[in-house]
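hey can u run this one w/ iron/sulfur cluster bound, need the structure tokens asap thx
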Amino acid sequence: MTLAQSIIPITPLATQEKTSLDSNFIQNGKGHAGMIHPAHLIQEGAASDRPFIEDSLRRPLRDLRISVTDRCNLRCTYCMPREVFDHQHAYLPRSDLLSFEEVERLAKVFIRLGVQKIRLTGGEPLLRRGIEHLIEKLAKLHDPSGIPIEIALTTNAVLLSSKAQSLKDAGLSRISISLDGLSEAVFQRMSDSNISVSTVLDGIAAAQRVGFSPLKVNMVLKRGVNDHEIIPMAEHFRNSGIILRLIEYMDVGCSNGWRMVDVVTAKEIHQRIHQLYPLQELEPSYPGEVAKRWRYADGCGEIGLVASVTQAFCSGCTRARLSTNGMLYTCLFATDGADLREPLRRGADDHLMGSLITQYWQRRTDQYSQLRHTVAAGTRQKIEMSYIGG
Ligand code: SAM
Ligand code: SF4
Ligand code: SF4
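ok here u go:
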């Protein structure tokens, strides 16, 4: 069995396809593995001239989320419930984690296949020791036509006030911060911690001070737990230059006990804000943007609504996820993935890694959110978000 055949846990390729795996990987970032039918090799217009590969539903690979740790200093009930993620939980041993050099190498391969944005996530990415060094490496990357790759990070901001400057200096382009309420009791209940809201607000202030702009604050809504914080949060972030993004609670993983009745829909969130502060719809900032953008009619800023449950956006989903230990997943709700660490550590070169990723992406059929309410979707053994990367 060849290295390539041994790692992709998917339907075997036809013989002819297997033999072309190594030889046809097109170089200089303009192409991809032999598996690709010429019709799939599409160039964008002259303005961007960026290559890309497509999945079986003709969605390009454009975004890469990299989870840099499966650990976290909070225990948000919708993500890492303490009953499951307790001291007995088996976190990944250090030797399983991709090194920064391995992440950088894979990032370069993904970029040659069309990735334009990289987001570091987790778990809590600021817990990964020396994260600034990884950012420094990634911030130097650019696509085949010389356009710099945007490097973003999502954090709970518990450690942000002391790290904001070094993250900026390392070349991080953007930060999104998670905050589910302003009241101490609500925040501590949602995060199942005794961290103070002021710690997160200090982190936000530090990020603003060092020049991260525009900052985005993510708020996940759970009915009866923090939905009464919608208006206080909207009022707090109006006029601040910060974009509040209100997110429907999702059924990621299998441990959060998700129920549809706990979801506060984007429609309802919109109504609640709109009746106090009229909103006007804005155009997406870029194709495939997951948040629907709204501006306050009085000019006091912008919010985003992420209707991942009630208005699925799978048809425009261009995201791949790389887990902390190097598994490639093509959906947030994936049940399995492709091990990229194994071939990497066994000496596969960049062309072979590119072929493997291309093959996996080409087979992608994911559209979980659009199928959520079907029986098949309901019985899936999904991977936890803290591991796969939120
Ligand atoms: N620890 C970092 C943080 O919280 O920002 C990064 C990782 S976290 C998994 C990434 C994002 O996923 C956060 O904004 C979090 O609120 C969101 N998230 C986690 N579980 C979720 C769920 N069940 N539904 C919706 N969003 C969720
Ligand atoms: Fe940690 Fe982020 Fe998950 Fe909360 S949402 S438990 S902060 S990884
Ligand atoms: Fe993308 Fe999967 Fe989410 Fe659909 S359900 S938008 S395919 S990550």
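The first strand starts at residue 42 and ends at 43. anyway lmk if its weird
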